[in-house]
Write a structure and sequence with these properties.
The complex is a heterodimer. Chain A is α+β, with helices and mostly antiparallel strands. Chain A has 7 helices and 4 strands, in the order H-H-H-H-H-E-E-H-H-E-E. Classes of the chains: A alpha+beta, B alpha+beta.
Amino acid sequence: MNPVVRGVAVYLFVYLIFRILGKRSLAEVTTFDFVLLLIISETTTDALMGEDYSLTACFIMVCTLVGVDYLFSIIKEKSTWFQVVSDGAPLVIVDNGKPLVKRMEKSRVDEEDVMEAARLSQGLTHMREILYAVLERDGTISIVPKQKK
Amino acid sequence: MQKRLTVEEIQADLDLNEHLEMQQSGWRCQRIGLYCILIIVLTAALGLYGNGVISKKIYKEGNAWVEFDQFFRHEAKMQLKVGTESAKKVIISFPTHYLNHFEIDAIVPEPKESYFENGKINYIFNGHDTITITFYLVPQDAGNIKGSLKVNQNLFTINHLIFP
């Protein structure tokens, strides 16, 4: 198969898989997840290169992957719709100290995740001290504490 | 018409656009995607893409039989097994239009002789009481590959669907 077609197909497939897994898939990487990522990268390398280990094929593949990524970033810049579809949008999951349970369930985030982010970023100890917790596009949780308002 | 929200509606004093309707569509798509992943894994385990129960096909004709994968993957090595009973000499012939879609990686046991005749490649083996010959084939094209092979006087028609 043509290396450009291979590259685009693998890029889109991996993109789709991580989009299906949701925002939190990469934000909370455990040791096992890291090993799993290495295995996935090894597997995709074989599918990308096949048995063609030439320098030309390597250059074509790198250019294809970077090119598709660049193209995606341009489309995202031009179209808000595409940006939201491909990267998602920020979502408020705690409002005035009250966890928004349905939103958290849908995003596969629990109160422990919110409190962990609150402790790490703001040194907060209770949910009631949080004004807003927002699940950002990259899967991290940002905390707005009450006293800073 | 505005879609009904299945999550809490809030009035946050924050400078951000949640795109809640699109978030909801995204969650629905994620669920569909997870089902798709499940279906892919299950069908793969059953052999829809080769190496499994669904894929294996065995045809018998006279004292010969052929075992092959109906479904397989592009550039992956597959086995085509041919067997005969009570034949002193086994001649297996493939039409070239069929073999053109494959790279023959190995033939076990090796044929005593091979030659090309009338658009067919013939392999000759010394027979025993029962002999099983394995062709290791690597598909070079994706799609539907139709072909046939003749084992002595027995004709087999075989089809493969090769996934890219």
